[in-house]
């Protein structure tokens, strides 16, 4: 259990260290890596916090470690509402998994965007693009847990069940589903049934 928060898309929200020092959250998702896949050079967007293109986001490592010392899991969130991301094939999913491992998890890339701190895992917040190969990405990332430190995998699916983009990934049983990306009420009677069904199925799913 515990409260999950997304950090990184509001330059006025305070630093990662300040966020975790409130002791309100159990999980912090750094948002977002919103450009990757299909041969693109991956790119992280942390709004006004830092400029990754100039290597300015390596300072976030201090915040990551500060959170982890307090027992807070820190994840990298993929996707978001705006960005250029997709997976073109199983091989593409493998390439993205390898990149995430080397640059944010336990790998040893010399150009880690957030510095040398090791994140606890990857969050899937997929809201557009391809509906395919996210299950492959989950499997490839999960396989890295065999190298030592567990790689946590989470997802924030949208309310309709099954989720259009993450349905197959969730079916692998490798991702923990801890919330819903959006709840939109258009017609109360219909929405109530859909919302209740989705919430019930979500709550019955795996937990952290």
Automatic annotation (TrEMBL):
Domain GH18: 1-208
A single GO BP: polysaccharide catabolic process
Keyword field: Carbohydrate metabolism, Chitin degradation, Glycosidase, Hydrolase, Polysaccharide degradation
Top-level taxonomic group: Eukaryota
Catalytic activity: Random endo-hydrolysis of N-acetyl-beta-D-glucosaminide (1->4)-beta-linkages in chitin and chitodextrins
EC number: 3.2.1.14
SUPFAM superfamilies referenced in this protein's UniProt entry, alphabetically: (Trans)glycosidases
PROSITE patterns per UniProt: GH18_1 (PS01095), GH18_2 (PS51910)
Gene Ontology molecular function: endochitinase activity
Entry-linked Pfam families: Glyco_hydro_18
Listed GO CC annotations: extracellular region
Family affiliation: Belongs to the glycosyl hydrolase 18 family.
PANTHER family in the record: ACIDIC ENDOCHITINASE (PTHR45708:SF21), ENDOCHITINASE (PTHR45708)
Protein's name in the database: chitinase
Organism: Hevea brasiliensis
Lineage: Eukaryota, Viridiplantae, Streptophyta, Embryophyta, Tracheophyta
